[in-house]
Structures are given as C-alpha cells and as structure tokens.
Amino acid sequence: MTRETVTHRDGHVYEFGPAMDPVYEAADGESLTIETVDSLNGEIQADSDLLDEIPEEVNAATGPIAVAGASPGDLLAVEIEDVRVAEDRGRVLTAPGFGLRQDDPEIDHPATRITEVAGGGAADGDARGGAIDFEGIDVPIEPVIGTIGVATGGETISTLTPDDHGGNLDTTDVTGGTTVYFPVFQEGAMLAMGDAKAAMADGEMCGTGAEIAVEIDATLSVIEDPAVSPDRPLLDTGDAVKTVASAATLEEAVELANGDMLDLLAHHHGFSRTEAYLFSSLAGGLEISQVVDPQVTARNAVPSEYLSLPF
C-alpha cells in the first residue's frame, strides 16, 4: 500500500501554538512517511562550521499534520514503525551558553564534530543499519526523533522547548517500535516532528546528539474517551510504559512523571493512590531524557509485565 509522504519542503514550524495551519490532513488510522531536515537546517557540514549561538529558528518540525476526527479530550496515538537516516553525515556540537557544562573553561564553546555515516546507513543505501564515526570510534545508529508534538492548549512554545504538548522531548525511546500518545488540545491535533539524531545518549549532555535528517514511517490514530486521560505525552515501547514530563527543574519533572504513572497503575490494578505510589518504588524507575533545554525532561518507566495501557 502506497503511503503519502509529508516533507519539510511541504511545510515546517519553529513553534507549537493553539492556532496552527495544517500542511496535510491525515485520515484516522492513516500511515505516512514524514521527511525531516536536521535541526540546524543543513548549515553545519564540516568541523570548521561553528555555532556561535543557538538560532532563533531551530529544530524545524515537519507539519503540522491534522488528523481527521481528533478533538480536545481525545488522545493521538503516533505509532512509529521505522526511522531511517536520510543523509551521509550527522553533526554533534556545542554552542556558547548552551549545554550541561556551558561554563566549563576546559570545554570549547563552540565546537563541532561531523559524524559520518559508515558501514550502512544512507551512504551505502541502507538507512536502517550501520554506525556513525566519531574520531575513529563507531557508534551504532539508533535514530531518535528529538522534537515531536501537537498544538498547545493556549501558549505558543518554541520547538526548542518541551512541555505538556510534547515538543523538544529529546527522549531516546521516541524511535521505531514505540507508540507515542499525546493529549489533544485543538481540533485535528496538529502533529509536527523533526530534530532527529542518528544517535543520542540519555541526558543529551552537550546539547545535541548526532543531528541528522531522517525519514519516519508512522501511523496516526485517534483514541476517543480514554479511560485514563493523561495530561502529557506517554510512551509504549513494547517492553515498558513510560510517562514523560517536562518542567523547570529535574525534581519537578520527575514528580510530574511519577504522578502520571500513579494514575495508570491505580487504574490497571485497582490500587489506591497510596498503593500505586508504593508499587512505583518497586518496579521500573525514573529516567532522564534531557537536561539542556529551557525545560528539562524525565520519564517514569514500568515494565509491560506490570502495566498495560487502558486504550
């Protein structure tokens, strides 16, 4: 079956807001291929290309894509079937005033290293395998969608910032094989995504992964009247259910993620909130997504043997 392709050339955004104009309307349950550009719009192509500051327009997100039938109070399920690198190099870099160690005098700000794709990937016509080369060290390609989200409930938020609508979550689980669920705040949901990485560690310490263009195969479905209605993004990796939250501090983010998890555990097991809280300290745990954006992002994971989603 032929999939429609939505590309960054059709349209892309640098902010998520309450009023977004779609570049494509998908049917409920439709499968698409979504093409993205790297987070820096192809501006960095060599080690000598340096980023003196974070651009005003960064993390171009392909879309928005309206999904027919999606209304406030629903959930949008984004089943990510595959993510393929679509160019022969990524780039990992620092910029002044950005990153976990932005004030470390022994670390150059700015600095760039091009991470060429080798042993598979776009350079060899196999975008699903292979590695990137960092200073002679092979790092396996494990693509991540850094920025993915829907129209907000009110505030307009840059694609650099994560929040309840999603956005710049920089979460390694947002990849092939994961279904991401978003609360729908506006008619059509208005999904957009980009800012992919060929590889990225949890935390994204220097402020980037190996930034790269990708092709994403995804199926978009609307869930009406969910038994539990999360206020923030939610992941099903197949092995675990993970609540995702972003806030000004890591402490606030993990508290929000844990609170969302308690709702799911209480519903699934018939627990009281106290029992759900106690159980959350026994199975799974807290994980850091990123600590470098204007808000930080964390997740609370529980293995699928202990929890299934109520929708």
Brief sketch in words of this structure:
The protein has 2 helices and 22 strands. With 311 residues, it is mainly beta. The chain starts with a strand and ends in an 8-residue tail after the last strand.
Task: Tell me what the structure shows.
- It comes from Halorubrum xinjiangense.
- This protein is mostly beta strands and 311 residues long.
- It has one domain: Jelly Rolls (Sandwich), CATH 2.60.120.580.
- It is built from 2 helices and 22 strands.
- It has helices at 250-269, 273-280; strands at residues 4-7, 12-13, 15-16, 24-26, 30-35, 61-67, 75-85, 89-94, 111-118, 131-134, 137-140, 144-149, 157-158, 162-163, 166-167, 179-183, 191-197, 214-223, 234-236, 240-247, 285-290, 296-303.
- The strands form 4 sheets. A 9-stranded mixed β-sheet has the order 1-5-18-7-16-19-20-22-21. Strands 2, 4, 6, 12, 14, 15 and 17 form a 7-stranded mixed β-sheet that branches. Strands 8-9-10-11 form a 4-stranded antiparallel β-sheet, with no helix packed on it.
- α1 (250-269) crosses α2.
- The longest helix is centred in the last third of the chain and has 20 residues, at 250-269.
- Residues 120-128 have low confidence and may be disordered.
